[in-house]
Design goal:
Elements lengths: L3 E6 L3 H11 L4 E7 L3 H11 L3 E3 L2 H5 L6 E4 L7 H10 L3 E5 L6 H14 L3 E4 L6 H11 L6 E11 H10 L4 H17 L4 E9 L12 E8 L4 E10 L7 E9 L2 E7 L6 E3 L3 E3 L8 E3 L2 E3 L2 H13 L8 H20 L3 E2 L13
Parallel strand pairs: 1-2, 1-4, 2-3, 4-5, 5-6, 7-10
Antiparallel strand pairs: 7-11, 8-9, 8-17, 9-10, 11-12, 13-14, 15-16
Helix pairs in contact: 1-9, 4-5, 5-10, 6-8, 8-10
The site of nicotinamide-adenine-dinucleotide has 23 residues, from helix 1.
């Protein structure tokens, strides 16, 4: 069987899932881990039995036998230099969202990957959930006719909001709605987003920072289809990293309603009260299976290298998502719609 050697940079929460998925994937021979927190490195190493561990990811990049790198480090500003260095070291790269902090950085790494004929993909894990794939299929096969309007509303617990706002000033659009914008843009391709309007509200995190609690984003596509995506991160602390999501898609010949609020499994104990297992966005291991999309996504990327197949999430798609959430933040700041595409590749843009 054909095998590759894989490195994981930043095996924290998501990177730990990637490392465990790689460790049991028959297409992976050697596993290498780079992590700057020694206690976390030791924890994941004990679970995955890697060939090497280091606190300096450049050591993995210098190893010619390593074929592919998963970048799961935070803060998110580390992604661009890590992608660039990995591609320049001739490695295929999978990076958690966001691909980078600016459009310029995204353009640079996309161009290096193309020039070197290396795979580059971005972690939009929700595409690997069966319920989400079903929406994609129903829109592609025409079973609900022409799409008219699509809504995704997602809220996660405040521990995630705390973690995210502690390390970055990025908005709910950039950090959370990015998944659902990617999902709907994917479902609606080849339609293109042409207009974005967004509003934020903040009453909780605003006490100590300039981070909003919630953001609504409305996008108009070039055929008139409308998208509404909501993202918030202040749900009360309940089940660790709980995420609830509701999807409505209305078309000319039908409609789809998807409940992804995870109320189908309720675990109630005297010690901990009501808990919602298997309700996190990446998913979690349960005994001998993985409940959630991140393992399937990891396996898919490895197979795309082994069999030279196209990756599920093209980097140009992640760039388009970035264009939309940057426009959303600008719209929220200015209180007016922003037209797409934007011509400025560096950052905040002029509304036309
Ligand atoms: N796809 C999803 O569902 C999903 C869900 C949550 C987070 N994410 C994304 O995944 C990424 C990771 O998020 P997380 O919550 O797992 O973060 P985390 O903070 O739990 O893990 C990141 C790890 O990177 C390590 N690190 C930082 N700098 C490093 C360096 N130079 N070298 C090696 N290790 C380094 C940190 O010590 C930490 O252990 C983020 O980009 C986030 O936006 C994706």
């Amino acid at each position: 069987m054909k095998q590759i050697n894989v490195g994981i940079i930043g095996p924290g929460w998501c990177g730990g899932i990637r490392a465990n998925a790689c460790a049991i994937n028959p297409h992976v021979d050697e596993l290498h881990l780079a992590e700057i927190r020694p206690e976390r490195l030791a924890e994941v190493a004990a679970e995955t039995n890697p060939i090497s561990t280091t606190d300096d990811y450049h050591e993995i990049l210098a190893n010619d036998s390593v074929n592919a790198i998963f970048i799961s480090a935070t803060p998110e500003s580390t992604h661009y230099p890590m992608i660039r260095d990995s591609l320049l070291a001739e490695k295929h790269v999978f990076v958690e969202k966001p691909i980078s902090s600016t459009m310029e950085e995204a353009d640079e790494v996309i161009s290096i990957a193309e020039q070197k004929n290396l795979k580059l993909s971005v972690g939009y894990s929700q595409r690997f959930k069966p319920k989400f794939a079903f929406v994609h299929k129903a829109l592609k096969d025409g079973s609900i006719g022409e799409p008219v309007t699509c809504l995704v509303s997602r809220n996660v617990t405040r521990e995630l909001g705390d973690k995210i706002t502690g390390r970055t000033k990025m908005s709910p659009a950039a950090m959370e709605a990015t998944h659902d914008l990617d999902f709907l843009l994917w479902c609606l391709r080849p339609r293109k987003p042409v207009r974005v309007y967004s509003q934020q509200s903040g009453k909780l995190f605003a006490r100590d920072s300039d981070t909003p609690d919630h953001q609504w984003i409305m996008v108009t596509m070039d055929d008139g289809t409308t998208i509404t995506v909501g993202a918030g991160w202040i749900l009360p602390l309940g089940y660790k990293n709980y995420s609830q999501c509701w999807i409505e898609v209305v078309g000319t010949d039908g409609a789809l309603t998807i409940d992804d609020t995870h109320k189908e499994v309720q675990f109630n104990t005297v010690g901990s009260g009501i808990q919602y297992p298997m309700s996190t966005m990446p998913g979690e291991p349960v005994d001998h299976v993985f409940a959630g999309p991140m393992k399937a996504e990891t396996d898919h990327f490895i197979e795309s290298i082994i069999y030279d197949r196209p990756v599920m999430v093209k980097p140009s798609e992640a760039r388009e998502v970035m264009d939309v959430y940057v426009a959303a933040d600008l719209s929220a700041e200015r209180g007016e719609p922003v037209l797409l595409p934007r011509n400025d590749t560096s950052g905040p843009i002029e509304a036309e």
